[in-house]
Design goal:
A middle domain of Talin 1; globular; mainly alpha
């Protein structure tokens, strides 16, 4: 439901914006960018509003780890992923910066939740990032990610009439709200039923689920010979997860940070981000061997998360 609703929202809203004369670049940097991150955004915000904020932080951290280790690992086994594409180095730097900012805010104050002022700082990051991207595009940057965003606004199957555009947009918003509510409620029930924390469900089931769109996009692009899309897609998703998703979630309510995430999972996310940044800075392609290592690292991480939470849960 989240995948279909997100697609309907992007198609309907993008078509409406075009109808009203909004340039493709603006549509790409706003509607398309936020629309493709809508599942994570809706799930995290609804989790905070329903008092399951551990699910929100688990979703963001788990999604970013999955994006690097799983979403890049599987396609790299099929075809080497180039890292020397224009703009990738810049976005890798932004992704690493965003990760460091999130970790720093989590530890200020120590053992305190992320609250509104944390959220404002984080969400300001996505606004500044989009303004920067717009400036680069206007100056003639050859960044393929920018071109891809503009191209995505002219999607095949986009509605042509006002009525269908509005219907797509309304169905998209409604579907996202309903799908997010279903995920949060059932994730909470799962956590209670298995005797584990909501953070565990967020790090595993929900994180993998909300990372599936990125995995599908990257696999299709790799199959079609456009493997250069993979790195940009993952970096963009991780930047949005930290700045936009975690920022919005923290603005609507306090986000509790479980101590186990501060001890282990945050640093796995940082290590994965640093490793990807090193690959990008060396301009070395992520080949089959590296892909196997990434995928194996994700399997080991999942095993470590499962063993940690199983050990803490008498019912398991």
């Amino acid at each position: 439901m989240l995948l279909v609703a997100g697609d309907l929202l992007v198609r309907g809203a993008a078509a409406l914006a075009h109808k009203w004369g909004v340039p493709s670049l603006i549509v790409g940097l706003t509607i398309v960018a936020f629309g493709t991150s809508a599942p994570e955004l809706i799930v995290s915000v609804q989790a905070v509003l329903t008092g399951a904020s551990e699910l929100a932080i688990g979703n963001v951290i788990g999604s970013n780890i999955a994006n690097i280790l799983l979403v890049l690992g599987i396609p790299a086994i099929i075809m080497a992923l180039p890292t020397n594409v224009a703009g990738v180095g810049r976005n890798a730097g932004v992704g690493l910066f965003a990760t460091v900012v999130l970790i720093a805010l989590i530890f200020i104050p120590i053992n305190g939740p992320l609250v509104r002022w944390h959220g404002i700082i984080l969400f300001s990051g996505i606004i500044l990032y989009l303004i920067w991207m717009f400036g680069l595009a206007k100056s003639g940057s050859k960044d393929p990610a920018l071109a891809e965003m503009a191209d995505m606004t002219d999607m095949e199957g986009s509605p042509k009439s006002y009525g269908v555009m509005i219907l797509f947009t309304v169905l998209g918003i409604g579907g996202l709200a309903l799908g997010g509510d279903m995920i949060v409620k059932n994730a909470t029930v799962l956590a209670a039923g298995f005797g584990v924390s909501e953070a565990f469900i967020g790090l595993t089931i929900v994180a993998i689920g909300t990372s599936l769109p990125e995995l599908a996009t990257v696999l299709v692009a790799t199959y079609r010979g456009h493997s250069e899309v993979a790195i940009g897609n993952v970096l963009g998703s991780n930047i949005f997860n930290i700045f936009a998703v975690m920022g919005a979630a923290s603005i609507v309510g306090p986000v509790s940070i479980p101590s186990e995430l501060m001890v282990f999972d945050l640093w796995v996310m940082l290590a994965a981000t640093v490793a990807l940044t090193i690959f990008v800075l060396r301009r070395a392609p992520i080949g089959r061997k590296a892909g196997i290592v990434l995928l194996a690292a994700y399997v080991l991480y999942m095993a470590a998360v499962a063993s940690r939470f199983v050990a803490a849960s008498p019912s398991l």
